[in-house]
Write a structure and sequence with these properties.
Helices cover 17% and strands 36% of the residues. By secondary structure, the chain is an alpha+beta fold. The protein has one domain. The strands form 4 sheets. Strands 3-4-7 form a 3-stranded antiparallel sheet. A two-stranded antiparallel sheet has the order 1-2. The protein has a two-stranded antiparallel sheet with strand order 5-6. A hairpin with a 3-residue loop joins strand 1 and strand 2. It starts with 6 loop residues before the first strand and ends in a 6-residue tail after the last strand.
């Protein structure tokens, strides 16, 4: 059977053997800063990775004494039932062992890149989205962790 030339199912140009990927964020996509990860291997042999951030617990309630004449208030009582650190799960990611390995290798490469940039004192130029703000220069020592 002869192979057809041209488009294969509309996504692959069989003559160049190239495939172009486009990135689109879903409406529920958000950027989060994480403190750590917890997880393991699922019964289906996927890797489960729960990304979390840590914070101190909020009080259950506060009681304030009001001073209307000076329009001020003073905290007089706080009810705190939770003691410890709260780990809030931001996302749970499931992936194949192959994807987990590729992700781990990618992360290690990015750590090396960040370390090299930090050592060299490289300056980054942040390009704003079109029509928003001005271009600004940020030095490594200006970037907080």
């Amino acid at each position: 059977m002869a192979q057809k030339k041209g488009k294969v199912k509309g996504i692959l140009d069989s003559t160049s053997r190239r495939l172009k990927f486009f990135y689109r964020a879903v409406s529920t996509c958000k950027t989060v800063r994480i403190s750590g990860v917890w997880g393991g291997v699922t019964p289906a042999l996927d890797i489960q990775m729960s990304l979390f951030h840590e914070r101190i617990p909020l009080p259950d309630s506060d009681e304030l004494e009001l001073y209307p004449e000076s329009q001020t208030a003073k905290q007089v009582k706080t009810n705190q039932s939770s003691i410890g650190v709260i780990r809030e799960i931001e996302a749970v990611v499931l992936m194949s062992p192959e994807t987990a390995k590729a992700t781990a290798e990618w992360l290690l490469r990015k750590v090396e890149e960040a370390n090299e940039l930090s050592k060299s004192g490289t300056t980054f130029i942040i390009e704003p989205e079109e029509g928003v703000g001005k271009q600004q220069e940020v030095k490594n020592d200006d970037v907080s962790e």
